Amino acid sequence: VDLLAELKNSTNTEIPYSHQLYYDRHENIWRCKFAPNNKGNFYATILAKKKSERGLYTVAVTFPIEVNHIPSSNLTFPTTLQSFFDYDLKIKSPRSRASPKWSEKSSYTEVLIQAPDDIQLSSSIQRNKIPVENGSLTQYDHERQLWQFLFAPEQTGSHELIIFAKRINDKATAAGAVAIFPLNVTKVEQPMKFPLTYTHFETTKCQIYNPLYGILKRNTTVAIHCRIPGAKSVMITAGARTLRGEGYTDPIFQREITVGSEEIIVSVKYEQTPHYTTLIKYSVE
C-alpha cells in the first residue's frame, strides 16, 4: 500500500508544507505529522492505494483537528520523498521550517544534512524548473560532521533547493531527488557562482574553504584552501602551467596562485591510481 497526506482548513484550502509522511522501515509503521498554520478547524486526510494499482488514491481516513493555540513560529516541512528516510538522512538545518533563512546581504544560503557514510549526495537550485548554472555546492563539513549544501540564487523570486542521493556502491542507479526546500528570494545584493566540482569531490568528502566564488579575477593572486583527505599528490593546472607537489599536507591543501587568462583546475592523485582525477574547476574573467 502507498499513502499520501494532505491538510486543509475549514474553507477546504490545502495548507502547503504542512505535513510529513513516510514509512518507518525500522518500526514497520507509517508516520504522518501535521502542522496547522493558524487557529481554527483543520482536516488531516490520509489517502491510499495499492502499489499494484494504477488508479487514483482514495480517502482512507480524515481526522478533524481543532487548533486553539499556535506557536509564534509556524512549523513547516520541506518536501521529503520516501527515499530520504530509506537512506536514513536527517535534516539538521533548517530546523522546524521548510525553507532555509535568506539574508538580503548574503549571496547564498545553507542546508545541513546528516547522512551515513555509504550515501553520495549532490544538489541543485532551480527557478521556474530551470537549474541555476553553478548555483549550488555540495561538500562535507568536517568540523560539524555534516553535509553542507550552499545555494546561490541569481534572481529574486521563488526557487527550489533540491537534494539528490544514491548509494555510493550502486553504480547502475542515478542519484534521485530526496528532498526539496522552497526558497523565496526577496533581494540579491551580490550574485555569485560556485566552483564546478566533480563526483570524486563528493565521494571522497572534500571541502572548499576558499575561494567559494567560482569565477576568479584575471591578474589577481588567489589563496586556494581545501580539505582533500587521503591524497598522494595535488596538482593545479592553469592552461599550460602545471603546479605540483607544494602546499599539500594530508588532508589540507593550501597554495597561492596568480590567475592568468585560463581556467584553474585542481586535480588529485591517490596511491592506488596512476592518473590524476579532476576535483574542482574555477573559471576566469
What does this protein structure show overall?
This is KY-like immunoglobulin-like domain-containing protein. Residues 5-73, 76-195 form the KY-like immunoglobulin-like domain. It comes from Rotaria magnacalcarata. The chain is mainly beta. The chain folds into three domains: 2-67, Immunoglobulin-like; 79-185, Immunoglobulin-like (Sandwich), CATH 2.60.40; 205-284, Immunoglobulins (Immunoglobulin-like, Sandwich). 4% of the residues lie in helices and 51% in strands. It has two helices and 24 strands. The chain has helices at 82-86, 199-203, and strands spanning 2-9, 19-24, 29-34, 40-49, 58-67, 79-80, 90-93, 109-114, 119-127, 130-131, 136-141, 146-151, 157-167, 176-185, 196-197, 207-210, 215-216, 221-227, 233-238, 241-244, 248-249, 252-258, 264-269, 277-284. The strands form six sheets. Strands 15, 17, 19, 20, 23 and 24 form a six-stranded mixed beta sheet that branches. A hairpin with an 8-residue loop joins strand 13 (157-167) and strand 14 (176-185). The N and C termini lie far apart (55 Å). The mean pLDDT is 96.
Spell out the blueprint of helices and strands.
Elements: E1 2-9, E2 19-24, E3 29-34, E4 40-49, E5 58-67, E6 79-80, H1 82-86, E7 90-93, E8 109-114, E9 119-127, E10 130-131, E11 136-141, E12 146-151, E13 157-167, E14 176-185, E15 196-197, H2 199-203, E16 207-210, E17 215-216, E18 221-227, E19 233-238, E20 241-244, E21 248-249, E22 252-258, E23 264-269, E24 277-284
InterPro entries: Ig-like_KY
Domain KY-like immunoglobulin-like: 5-73, 76-195
Organism: Rotaria magnacalcarata
